[in-house]
Design a protein that fits this description.
AKR; 336 residues; eight-stranded parallel beta barrel; NADP; TIM Barrel; oxidoreductase; K_chnl_volt-dep_bsu_KCNAB-rel; alpha/beta; globular
Length: 336
């Protein structure tokens, strides 16, 4: 496993992060989830990403149990706050001071830890003053409950505004967690250049495009039994956008490129995101331990320029690049 600095900080994290969105506490039984975490540790992964909203707090609980007994100082544990949790009452979501403070304490208990390495604003809250949100994060940092602060799916301007307030309050934003893959490149036009200027790294999610870039979905053929595309709890609605024959046909053309690189299709997709020098880590998910081992092979890989150019040529007509898609990811209201 190789490691990279996260933003303009001294924190090093593993190039591949194990995340448990859509799996722990919902799609995967606890015993299997623990086996996946063990596989991550065995492959040198030290960074783990979750969120209180995943499986309505159950994912954090499962991760906390799976990491119990590990040397805490050797791990980097990330979680997030924003989405509705618990009974989903009127203050059980968003980035108000009340919710951030209560959510942080809940996450610490479920993760069985005294501190969170990276606490992230899961989306931008348009209904709470940014000053209130950033002051709450600053207080958590000063209390020692949070070591570093990041965000997820913020636009370039939101990053700029948040970073300025953070500096005034005596801390810094060091990361943004956006969706990013060969097929979804909306951060390249505005978010990445702004992040480089601000000292912010990307912690990217869905580098395999919810499994489409594994090549297991074939154009004109039935969906594989038990695959994510057939599982309403496991992200079928998210993957639907890519389940078009024009996309699937082009993905199949990547198979010889993966073979040329000596990688599985999944590892090629993860490695592709890591070629972007503003990406600190790529988050992988898994329902089986062998998937973790396969994806972890992307760490330390350098893809040559010719291969990268071929990827662009093959996928160009089906790549989403519109920067406006980032703004669309944050809700315009925080009603539960």
């Amino acid at each position: 496993m190789d490691f990279r600095y996260l933003g303009n900080s001294g924190l090093k994290i593993s190039e591949v992060t194990y995340g448990n969105w859509l799996t722990h506490g919902s799609q995967v039984e606890n015993e299997q989830a623990q086996a996946c975490v063990r596989a991550a540790l065995d492959n040198g992964i030290t960074t783990f990403d979750t969120a209180d909203v995943y499986a309505n707090t159950k994912a954090e609980t499962v991760l906390g149990e799976a990491l119990k007994g590990e040397r805490r100082e050797s791990l980097e544990i990330f979680t997030k706050v924003f989405g509705p949790i618990g009974p989903k009452g009127h203050n059980d979501l968003g980035l108000s001071r009340k919710h951030i403070m209560e959510a942080a304490n809940g996450s610490l208990q479920r993760l069985q830890t005294d501190y969170i390495d990276l606490y992230q604003a899961h989306r931008y809250d348009v209904e709470t003053p940014l000053e209130e949100t950033m002051q709450a994060f600053a207080d958590l940092v000063r209390a020692g409950k949070v070591l570093y602060v990041g965000v997820s799916e913020w636009t370039a301007q939101q990053l700029r505004d948040g970073a300025a307030l953070a500096r005034e309050l005596g801390f810094q934003l060091i990361s943004n967690q956006p969706q990013y893959s060969m097929l979804w490149r909306v951060i390249e036009g505005e978010v990445v250049p702004t992040s480089k200027e601000l000292g912010i790294s990307q912690v990217v999610w869905s580098p395999i495009a919810q499994g489409v870039l594994t090549g297991k979905y074939k154009p004109g053929q039935p969906l594989p039994e038990g695959s994510r595309a057939t599982d309403e709890k496991g992200g079928a609605n998210m993957i639907a956008r890519w389940m078009r024959d024009d996309v699937l046909e082009r993905v199949q053309q990547l198979v010889p490129l993966a073979q040329e690189a000596g990688l599985s299709m999944a590892a090629l997709a993860v490695a592709w995101t890591l070629q972007n020098d503003n990406v600190a880590t790529a988050i992988i998910g898994a329902s089986r331990p062998e998937q973790v081992t396969d994806n972890a092979a992307a760490a330390g890989v350098t893809l040559d320029a010719d291969l990268l150019a071929k990827v662009d040529e093959i996928l160009d007509p089906v790549i989403e690049r519109d920067p406006a898609k980032t703004a669309e990811s944050s809700p315009k209201t925080r009603e539960a």
